[in-house]
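During the second half of the funding period, the structural biology subgroup turned its attention to how the target accommodates small molecules. The most pressing case was zinc ion, which had performed well in the primary screen but for which no bound structure existed. We therefore specified the complex as follows and requested a full 3D prediction, including the ligand pose.
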Amino acid sequence: MKSRHVILRGLVATVIGFAAFGPVVAAANAGQGFADVHVHFNWDQQEIIGAEEIVGKLRAAGVEFAVVAATPSELALELKRVGGDLIIPLFSPYTHELGRNDWYRDERTAILAEEGLSSGQYRGIGEVHFMRGFPPATDNRIFLRLLQLARSFDVPVMIHIDAGNELAFLDLCRDHPELKLMFAHAGGNLYARHIRPVIEQCANVMIEFSARDPWRFGGLTDDDRRLLPGWRELILEYPDRFMTGTDPVWKVTRTQTWDQADDGWSYFEKLLAYHRQWIAELPPPVQQKIRLDNARRFFNVR
Ligand SMILES: [Zn+2]
Ligand SMILES: [Zn+2]
């Protein structure tokens, strides 16, 4: 239980902080450009929200650009048609509604990836999920062909890693130092001590924190939305290696069943505000890097 003293101190700090800077800082942060490096536009979201509405939400929230992985992949291009430069579409190997189940056995995956990348429609590959105990593994043949394409076209790959799989990822990034790899979803059960070796051994990797907000897995900040000590130190030590995103997909919360359309985009503003909040606690030059500059560099956005 918190002591009265601690509660009182917190209250006083909040009141002083709010009176002195609160509304001004909040307003400034809300308007500062933000790169959301992890959003989706999936077939089971389309029943609820269309491309125009998503683009409207991104613009209203001050997002400078959003990296989109869609299932099926083509939906990212639909969003791009509406959003223009706001949208960085990735080629998703999930080329049909249930593609996540069979892409790694399907020769067409790599053919479609090559078409999509060579036409210049897509600016990267992902999201590719690796879940411990389930196929595919990171040495899957089709996946390795996707990595070859990423190398040829010099584009990033967004990889979803669950806890326990970070060692497989470490092998992967060490084996492919020439690839630009994005490690999605640090936080949760992946602590700073799990991520440090990835950062230190693989200069080609960027780490992001989507879906590790208080509503989904957590593990990034405390109850006051300040970075947990391990994360704060790691970020301050390697400020060029982190980005973040909202990942507005809600089925992972289990409050929504799999036979319902996914209403993740209705939480988007809340998720973005959360990320802005923890970033705002960092020194301003580091804020700027994590909010925008690192993603600009990684995704080659001018
Ligand atoms: Zn993911
Ligand atoms: Zn995702």
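Two results from this model are relevant to the next phase. Residues 127, 160, 184-185 surround zinc ion (ligand 1) (CB under 6 Å). The chain has two domains: 1-31, 35-298.
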